[in-house]
Amino acid sequence: MRRTEFREIVIKLLYAHSMSGDFNSEENEKDIVDRFKGVISHINEIDEIIIKNLARYTIDRLNYVDKAIIRNAVYEMVYTDLPSNIAINEAINLTKKFSNLEDDQAKRFNNKLLDNIRKSLK
Prior knowledge:
The protein is 73% helix and 0% strand.
């Protein structure tokens, strides 16, 4: 499985968890389940990082898809060895695929937020 497909499944699971809280670990590969559980186990810390870097915006205003994408990217930046620029690039590609409208506002917003997070983590 490609890393992009891996992230897409994780994003879908995080989205579903945000919507209903349901999660069946038997339907997914161990690596995906481990990533999902990793994000969920650190969700309070991840959300605090997001909140600290939102300008004139609250985390509650983020749509569930963008929130899932951003949470996974922050997890990758903080809790894995993946370089931040790759985590951000992958998150922006996911935004383009799942959340971006024709005006590119979601892409620009998520890129700016993740760049602010990257800078704050140094």
